[in-house]
Amino acid sequence: MKTNDYIEMEEKYGAHNYHPLDVVIEKAEGVWVYDVDGKKYLDCLSAYSAVNQGHVHPRILAAMIEQAKKVTLTSRAFRNDQLPLFYKELAEFTGYEMSIPMNSGAEAVETAVKLARKWAYTVKRIPRHQAEIITATGNFHGRTTTVISFSTEPHYRDDFGPFTPGFVTVPYGDAEAVAKAITPNTAAVMLEPIQGEAGVVIPPAGYLKKVAEICKKNNVLLIADEIQTGLCRTGKTFASQHEGVRPDMVTIGKALSGGFYPISAVLADSALMNLFTPGEHGSTFGGNPLAAAIGRAALAVLRDEKLAERSAELGAYFLEQLQEIPSKHVKEVRGRGLFIGLELKPEAGGARRFCVELQKRGILAKETHDNVIRFAPPLVIDKDTIDWAVSIIRTVLQMD
Ligand SMILES: *Cc1c(COP(=O)(O)O)cnc(C)c1O
User: Fold this and answer.
1) Which alpha helices (H) appear in the chain, and where do they start and end?
2) Which of 31, 13, 39, 29 is nearest to 21 (CA)?
3) What percent of the chain has a predicted confidence (pLDDT) above 90?
4) Co-location of 144 and 18 in the same domain
5) pLDDT at position 327, please?
6) pLDDT of residue 369
7) Same domain flag for 206 and 114
8) Quick one: 68 and 171 in the same domain?
9) Residue 197 sits in the same domain as residue 300
10) CATH (domain of 332)
11) CA distance 400 to 388
């Protein structure tokens, strides 16, 4: 079968809930992916930062194969010998005392919402079923019905109501707006430290720190959604650390498996996490031994290959190189570590056409919204590859 045969088959039998570039990938290694015609591309999306460790990392692969031969799923009705080690190593890696494992990112967010509500009723003593959670405009926290209830993207919501109540929206980047929105019923504020899906939107300096102070003063939990920004992507373990903030809860996912398996989690200290009692929350696959073994290896790679430092160093270099490209199309290039958004001017004709040109020349990048191209390669990229990528990106940005 050729590229077009795969695409036709996919379009005929599969739901059309994505608009992918027309590249059909059959294998990958490190920062490179290969299509069915044998063409090689630099992956500048990293599956939305799920493959921070690089594609098919040998150490994670070995852990997966070894565990898959032993036992993959016990359900949480029984214990398994991988989950305790995963919990402990996750605590050591993140600095949070406890965690709860889930599968997808959206499930981690749902879990954080439930835990915040439980805290609201049992600790803060908010009248039952009246807890409010403050969220920000432009947020992306996933696609379940509760999570889209606080999306501000009409396209994600319009045809999918009725929505889950209990969410309040304030403008992203405005700490005063958070302060104003707090009521006696506010349980939590939930934010992305940098908004990835909104187009790598970096809030004003001091924003998260200020929000954290406001939360503390008002006895409100701070939840950071670090599913995309966490696990070394922005040059630190968590993007919140750029402002010295330690949220009460952190949601993680994506790179928690290095791209091998859907694994997510919520991190919190014991005072909060111990509010969950048996039966209140769970997942058949959450915390299974295969996931736990993969997660352990994925964390070990982030740690042993010093991928946070690597992201900080190479990200600064990549950003500087991109900022130096003279182009009439570019409005702004911004980033933190290897998490970079290149925003085009409205008159540039949209980011999609540039992504298509990049693809022709061997770089896979995806537009986010209409005018931003995200550059977020696996963190194992090297300087020579960045130099090569910049030369291609320069050519494309200098087209008419
Ligand atoms: C990707 C993402 C999610 C959702 O994760 P899924 O695994 O797709 O459910 C939630 N929050 C943020 C910030 C994300 O980037």
Assistant:
1) 3-13, 46-49, 58-70, 83-94, 105-122, 145-148, 154-157, 175-181, 207-217, 270-273, 289-304, 307-323, 352-360, 383-397
2) 39
3) 99
4) no
5) 96
6) 85
7) yes
8) yes
9) yes
10) 3.90.1150.10
11) 21
CATH of the domain at 118: 3.40.640.10
Q: Which of 254, 278, 304 is the last residue of a domain?
A: 304
Report how far residue 309's alpha carbon sits from residue 302's, in angstroms, rounded to the nearest whole number.
10
Report CA(127)–ligand 1 centroid distance (Å): 30
Give the range of the structural domain holding residue 10, as residue numbers without chain letter.
3-57+306-397
Distance 293 CA to ligand 1 centre (A): 22
Same domain? 46 vs 94: no
Pocket of ligand 1 (CB under 6 A): 48, 104-106, 109, 140-142, 192, 196-197, 225, 227-228, 253
User: Is 254 annotated in the active site?
Assistant: yes
List the structure tokens of 226: 């670090």
Q: Average pLDDT, stretch 157-178?
A: 97
Round the average pLDDT of the chain to a whole number and report it.
97
pLDDT band at 68 (very low <50, low <70, confident <90, very high): very high
- What does the pLDDT look like over 227-253, one tens digit per residue? 999 999 999 999 999 999 999 999 999
Give the total number of structural domains in the chain.
2
Are 43 and 122 in a shared domain?
A: no
Do 23 and 105 share a structural domain?
Answer: no
- C-alpha 326 to ligand 1 mean position (Å): 34
DSSP string, 130-148: --EEEEETT----SSHHHH
- Mind listing the pLDDT tens digit for each residue in 169-202? 999 999 999 999 999 999 999 999 999 999 999 9
Instruction: Name the domain boundary from 286, 304, 322.
Output: 304
Answering whether pTM is above 0.90, one says yes
